[in-house]
Design goal:
mainly alpha; 2 domains; two-stranded antiparallel ribbon; 2% strand
């Protein structure tokens, strides 16, 4: 009788895991379906590129936020996350291998791979949130991730990868790209780390009882506005974790309760980050721009 009861409990637990993983998978599946529909949807003749880019940005940024929010809401146990990881790996690896082997970027293969990639990122982000010991650690985290992302994009692995054909293929495989709104304009791009950190922040918001609506609104405005500016080619590259971290901190600033020592440490970190950005703007960026102009001839 005891064994039967244990088996029944185990089956019930597995059923709950499967249900939660399926619910967490709904967000990536909806995102992929929207990609397919958008890829065949004709844009109205004469539509301004600015308006078309705004519509694309609003749709897919909203869906990216939904993917992360839904994962934080549904994935609460390790078993649920592992099921979603397995499903995500299967959906990402097979289409990506076919695309790389054939050299054909078919919309269906792209949507399947992106669905898997989003599933992996959502599961990893919610898992990372469980490692946060308390609320106050999120304040330096929000400051630090922007600086790290800035360095990685401009000088680190991303910058190096984009200089080589193989690295470019790897970066494309780790990026969700929506169809372009107009010929000649780039499609909207959502990176693996972007969804991972969004899921991380949403999980922390739910875990520590932070301001979910305010965070969502500022995420949408900060990330959507930045992505729209990239889409219309006003700016080239912006590390997404900078506006993401800033939006999270602004939305939840009143929730942090730090001691005097913690405030001093956080202030020192903020000053270091500010000096780093100032150094880049005053010295490094002019040198980089001059080098680009010289190379362009």
């Amino acid at each position: 009788m005891g064994n039967a009861s244990a088996e029944a409990t185990g089956r019930a637990g597995q059923s709950c895991w499967s249900r939660a993983a399926f619910n967490g998978f709904q967000g990536p599946a909806i995102f992929a379906l929207a990609q397919l529909i958008w890829s065949v949807l004709p844009m109205p003749v004469g539509l301004s590129p600015l308006v078309a880019a705004a519509a694309s940005t609003a749709l897919f940024m909203g869906l990216a936020l939904y993917v992360s929010w839904n994962a934080a809401r549904t994935l609460r146990q390790a078993g649920e996350r592992w099921l979603l990881v397995g499903l995500g790996l299967a959906l990402w690896l097979a289409p990506t291998a076919l695309r790389l082997k054939s050299g054909v970027d078919h919309p269906v293969l792209r949507a399947m791979a992106d669905c898997g990639l989003l599933s992996l990122a959502a599961a990893a982000g919610t898992a990372g949130a469980t490692a946060m010991p308390d609320l106050n650690i999120l304040l330096p985290v929000g400051l630090f991730i922007g600086a790290v992302d800035f360095f990685v994009v401009h000088y680190g692995t991303v910058a190096v990868a984009l200089e080589h054909p193989v690295g470019q293929q790897v970066m494309q495989a780790l990026t969700v790209r929506t169809p372009p709104t107009q010929p000649g304009l780039p499609g909207a791009m959502v990176g693996f780390a972007d969804i991972l950190l969004l899921a991380f922040f949403y999980s922390c918001i739910r875990r520590f009882g932070l301001r979910e609506r305010a965070s969502s609104a500022l995420f949408f405005l900060a990330l959507g506005g930045t992505l729209w500016a990239v889409q219309v080619d006003w700016i080239k590259v912006v590390p997404a974790l900078i506006p993401m971290g800033a939006a999270f901190l602004v939305a939840n600033w009143g929730c942090f309760r730090l001691s005097r020592q913690e405030w001093l440490l956080t202030g020192g970190l903020a000053a270091c980050v500010a000096l780093f950005y100032l150094w880049y703007l005053l010295w490094m960026r002019p040198a980089i721009n001059a080098g680009v102009r010289m190379f362009a001839g």
